Amino acid sequence: MSINIKNSHIYRSIINFLNAITIAQETMPSETNNTCPVSGASSTPTNGAAPTCPFANANLSQPNTSQNATPSDPNLAVPEPYRSTPLTESQKALIKASIPALESHGLAITKLFYTNMLIAHPELRNIFNASNQAHFQQPRALANAVLAYAQHIDDPSPLMPTVELIVSKHVSLGVQADYYAVVGEWLIKAIAEVLGEAVTPELGEAWMAAYWKLAQIFIGLEASIYEKQKSEGWEGWQDFRVVKKVKESEEITSFYLEPVESRLKPLVGFKPGQFISIQVDVPEMGHRQARQYSLSDSSNPDYLRVSIKKETGNGASAPGVVSSLMHETKKEGDIIRVSRPVGVFFLDEAKIALDAPLVLISGGVGLTPLTAMLNHSAAQNTTRPISWVHGARSTAARAFKQHVEDVAKLHENVQVILFTANVAKEEVEGVENHIQGHINLDLVDKETKLFLSNKKAEYYVCGPMMFMLTMEKALQGQGVDSSRIHMEKFGTGGIAPVEQESPKSVL
């Protein structure tokens, strides 16, 4: 998926908003209220009239997330008042009128949202990545997202690429339609409590209607994917066995995963670049955690491969809980839960000319989805020119060097350009490590390796967010249209694992 930098702050904000409301593994018990926290109206209709409380028709039955996701009827998941009624112009005006209040009090709203929800439902603590919660990063991201949604309430269509991105993560985690009612309730409660009397019944209803319009889009898209997955025999979480564990560098280890149930073989194919979610028990936390990891090999009928970097922390961030657990405790023979491959960042061969050059640019562990693309292209014996451009912090941290160079030896259309910041003494610049230093596209031949004058060339970029933005800016500065630059997103607002190395390590 290509990204328009002009709208990047909006994309990141909306991603963070929807990631923040993702309910990944555990249930949200319902709460019964007789009075609407927004309008103060009774939830019980009188004299046969329609309920006046925005929550009155919300289906707050407790979702059973111990089961696999099943297709949901979008029309039944959305409360009756909001199923087919569009936002009125007056409701849109009210949402826009609340923008100044959101600018001033957005962070207070989202802090309260998380605090109240977690106090009332401590079981929800297992869905939040601790690194994203540190220093109020997630509440701040959510506050920015709510504001961005309000600012684009007239026309949310520019946000659809981001919606599709988040849908893939929701599906990967098994998010189901009935989760949205609970999340909407707590979010509107927080808005009402912080803004107080400023939240009139009309404004409360406008925000509830706006929330459900967004939720309805998600519910419909997710339901269609679940239906397709069910028809193909793999839906929801499945048990996989670690059949092989291979150390690729001092930081990165590959895990080969085979399904426990033979019915899942041959495995459903995936597109190179897509990811899976891995779910494990974290004993010290007392609950499960899930993380997303890009598949690092081409589609295989017998196994999936992920290559995970162990995050040790750098002072500003805590060590990665799941990555550390995978590295330190998971051994061959162990069972983990895996969801089906999904994702919108992939090599889309249907849209690329057969002779179009392919430039794969990665930093650090961002090489994993691009390795899948390279392996897929090699297996297909494609003749298109391919350039592999990779930056690593050190020789010891660099993964797949020998493999990538072996691919290049067997396929003359593949070129390898490696940047290594801290080079081992035994390596010779220009021979072993190619280029010493941080990755710099100015040092890569513009025509024979970057193909900048070829308007068919496609560029896939993966790594820490600042790395990707730097690479994108460099390519755009050389005349590459943004539609030909495809990036996977890391960090709080992305779908690849949030446990990634710092941008400083590869820039």
UniProtKB/TrEMBL annotation:
It comes from the Eukaryota. It catalyses: 2 nitric oxide + NADH + 2 O2 = 2 nitrate + NAD(+) + H(+); 2 nitric oxide + NADPH + 2 O2 = 2 nitrate + NADP(+) + H(+). Residues 31-77 are annotated as: Disordered. Residues 86-223 form the Globin domain. Gene3D superfamilies: Globins, Nucleotide-binding domain of ferredoxin-NADP reductase (FNR) module, Translation factors. Its EC number is 1.14.12.17. Residues 235-348 form the FAD-binding FR-type domain. Keywords: Detoxification, FAD, Flavoprotein, Heme, Iron, Metal-binding, NAD, NADP, Oxidoreductase. GO terms for molecular function: FAD binding; heme binding; metal ion binding; nitric oxide dioxygenase NAD(P)H activity; oxygen binding. It is an enzyme of class 1 (oxidoreductase). In the presence of oxygen and NADH, it has NADH oxidase activity, which leads to the generation of superoxide and H(2)O(2). Under anaerobic conditions, it also exhibits nitric oxide reductase and FAD reductase activities. However, all these reactions are much lower than NOD activity. This is nitric oxide dioxygenase.
